[in-house]
Amino acid sequence: MFDVILWTGLSYLSGSLPFAVWLGNLKGKDVRSVGDRNPGTINAFRAGGVWIGLAVLLLDVSKAAAPIGLAYYQFGWRGVQMLPIAIAPMLGHAYSPFLGFKGGKAIATSFGVWIGLTLWKVPLVAVPSLTLFYLWLRNSGWSLLFTLLTIGLYLGIFLPDGMLFMVLAFQSALLLWKHRQDLRQLPWRKPTDIHR
User: Fold this and answer.
1) Do the beta carbons of residue 164 and residue 117 sit within 8 Å?
2) pLDDT tens digits in sequence order for the chain, 196 residues long
3) Alpha-carbon gap, residue 165 to 135, rounded angstroms
4) Separation in Å, CA 11 to CA 63, 72, 87, 90
5) Left, alpha or beta for 104 (phi > 0: left; psi -120 to 50: alpha)?
6) Whose C-alpha in 11, 40, 46, 155 is 20 to 30 A from the C-alpha of 171?
7) Domain count, the chain
């Protein structure tokens, strides 16, 4: 039990590292002053440019993939014991103690979770799905919703593991909560349309 608590704590701490804010500050930019004021990857691109954005993307994915991958593949954690370890990085990113328990929307970190658990399998489905749905709908929340449904379908057919379904259920709840403003709009309308 202590091992699970320790790994969960390390996973949460890793996920809570606000790389977008830190790297943006190195360039004299506050990512929370642009776009939707979210301390995440997209605003890192907006505030810091391509290289800062790419660095934040890589780090936000890795801060979830690294602890989960180590626990899952190197130390052999499986089943329900793996669940809190797998969801902790997203909680850390969304509610970071470094930012007064505020944080980003956890999209990049959620991809890191799936890399840690399935290597390339779920990301190979999720990344193209999210891209295509976003190009079609231009609404992040609805694009995420359809992507999460696609991941669920993939898991049901190819990776029917109860723990993975529980991770997806938690991930869906957190991501959709973080994108609730988008979901209040029609699927084919940009969230900013409401302000026009």
Assistant:
1) yes
2) 788 999 999 999 999 999 999 999 988 888 998 878 889 888 999 888 999 999 999 999 999 999 999 999 999 888 999 999 999 999 999 999 999 999 999 999 999 999 999 999 999 999 999 999 999 998 999 999 999 999 999 999 999 999 999 999 999 999 999 999 999 988 876 665 443 3
3) 27
4) 8, 12, 8, 9
5) beta
6) 46
7) 1
Q: How many CA atoms lie within 13 A of 25 on its CB side?
A: 6
Neighbours of 28 (CB within 10 A): 8
Please give the Cα distance from 8 to 77 (Å, whole number).
12
SS3 96: strand
What residue type is assigned to position 68 of the chain?
I
CA 189 to CA 93: how far, in whole Å? 27
- pTM of the entire structure? 0.92
Query: Which of helix, strand or coil describes residue 27?
Result: coil
Distance CA 101, CA 95 (A): 4
